[in-house]
Amino acid sequence: MRNKSSRREPIDYIEKPLRKVASNDLTIGILLFISAVAALVVANSTWGGAWYHHLWETKINIQFGSAHFGMNLHHLINDGLMAIFFFQVGLEIKREFVLGSLNSWKKASLPVGAALGGMLAPALIYLAFNKGEAAEGWGIPMATDIAFTLGLISLVKNRIARSLTVFVTSLAVVDDIGAVLVIAFFYTSNIHLEQLLYAAIVLIILFGANKIGVRSVLFYAFMGIVGIWSAFFTAGIHPTIAGILLAMTIPVRTKVTRSRFRKQAVKLMGAYDKTKSLSERYNSPREDYLIEEMEELGDQARSPLQKIESGLHGFVFFIVMPLFAFANAGVVLEGGFDTLSTSTVALGVIFGLVFGKAIGISLFSWLLLKLNWAEMPAKADWRQIIGVAFLAGIGFTMSLFIAELAFDSKELIGQSKLAVLAASSLAALIGLVLLRNNKAKA
User: Fold this and answer.
1) Can you give the residue ranges of every domain in the chain?
2) Could you report the per-residue pLDDT of 152-202, keeping only the tens digit for each?
3) CATH code for the domain defined by 29-188+238-253+303-436
4) pLDDT tens for residues 200-247?
5) Of the ranges 25-39, 56-70, 115-129, 423-437, the best mean pLDDT one
6) Which contacts qualify for 36-43: CB closer than 8 Å, 24 or more apart?
7) Contact 256/296 with Cβ under 8 angstroms?
8) Closest to 170 measured CA to CA, from 116, 113, 108, 118
9) How far, in Å, CA of 201 to CA of 187, rounded?
10) With a threshold of 0.85, does the pTM exceed it?
11) Is 90 exposed, middle or buried (0-12, 13-18, 19+ CB in 10 A)?
């Protein structure tokens, strides 16, 4: 017989399935795919094409006295909201280096080496196709979209070794570091050093706050937006880099140790068990006080980094990234598909993402294993390595982002974006075929 005190509320029947779906990597990939397709459909329709392109030119102005801040909606998404995405990426990078699969050379050597190969080969292939202004897009095929890649891996997870998911995640994290460095050093110009100095001072303050034990999320958020993002924006450095740097300042350690948490939790539960309850559904003042103490203890047992990362997950992957995809994937297809075979920019992106990624990741992995500098992921084989190497050719989010930074010409931006969409689809198809036909299950 079900205990009435623990009965499910009507909302539970809706909320629980939604949470399960939202936590699935495949759901995120599907949502991004739908957003990209919707952008293509609307941008090329007679009823929505003009509306779509005019929407992103909408001006947004904020004024405080004589101070004025303004940008269009497209820049607000790419320079503002995407800084939050990069902040999430930075948190993941820091977590992996401190606690995860990159916290020792033995663990990190294979994904780091594979990621370097997966960045170098696509860039070289792209440059083999392009010279002059078009060569500026060499950074476009270097990126891997971790959300799409992990989403597709979940489709074949029963046919590959579990260790490969860790390998791909680590590879994508290193890939993100590479993409961020490329943006910072090669797609940034007209730097104002005084603003950069101001941002550096704020960063020093934040690192100092971390050291002395400041754990307020609001404090780091305020200093990050007002002190770092705004300084980078006015300094001429792409403000999304501010998200990565801010993430490096977030505390990763818990305030209480595991043993102290258990001891205090047992003590509080003991006190709670001795209280006189008003009823099963209402707390007495004493019960309420003890519950607050438990909540505070639980808060101290979680690191700010982990709290922020889990708290931002839904916002980043279900709002920021789909909105970015919808705002940036709307390429006009008039004569577009012919461009894929005639434009050197498009050919460079396609060959770089589809074949450059697979060749670079596979070749560098083989070299590291041959030299005994790394170990093959547990229960994995070369067919699986090559399969996930092709899946890493799904550039999407980061590739579309770099395409916006690489060129001033709308024509070249359009060609590169269309190529990213085509290449990502082809890489996904090849990778899935290789992995679906894999006979050895994990």
Assistant:
1) 29-188+238-253+303-436, 258-300
2) 888 887 778 888 888 888 888 888 888 888 887 888 766 677 888 888 999
3) 1.20.1530.10
4) 999 999 999 999 999 888 899 899 888 888 888 777 777 778 888 899
5) 115-129
6) 36/325, 36/326, 36/329, 36/396, 36/421, 38/326, 39/325, 39/326, 39/327, 39/328, 39/329, 39/330, 40/329, 40/330, 40/331, 40/333, 40/421, 42/330, 43/330, 43/331, 43/332
7) no
8) 108
9) 24
10) no
11) buried
Report the run of H or E that residue 69 belongs to, with start and end. strand 67-72
- 24 pLDDT more than 80: no
User: Can you tell me whether residue 112 is helix, strand or coil?
Assistant: helix
What is the C-alpha to C-alpha distance for residues 256 and 176, in angstroms, rounded to an integer? 32
Q: Identify the DSSP state of 60.
A: E
| Among 330, 350, 328, 329, residue whose Cα is nearest residue 339 | 350
DSSP for residue 377? P
Query: Crossing angle, helix 105-129 and helix 357-370, to 10 degrees?
Result: 140
Question: From CA 19, how far away is CA 14, in angstroms rounded?
Answer: 9
- On the CB side of 254, CA atoms within 13 Å amount to 15
Instruction: Say yes or no to pLDDT of 2 above 50.
Output: no
Amino acid 442: pLDDT:
45
pLDDT higher at 44 or 332: 44
Q: How far apart are the first and last CA of the chain?
A: 40
Q: Is the alpha carbon torsion for 145, 344, 126, 184 positive or negative? A: negative
| The two structure tokens encoding residue 439 | 């006979």
* Nearest in space to 139 (alpha carbons), one of 111, 181, 174: 181
Q: Using the predicted structure, report yes or no on whether residue 377 has a pLDDT greater than 90.
A: no
If residue 438 lies in a helix (H) or strand (E), which one and from where to where?
A: none
Name which of 75-89, 183-197, 399-413 the model is least confident about. 183-197
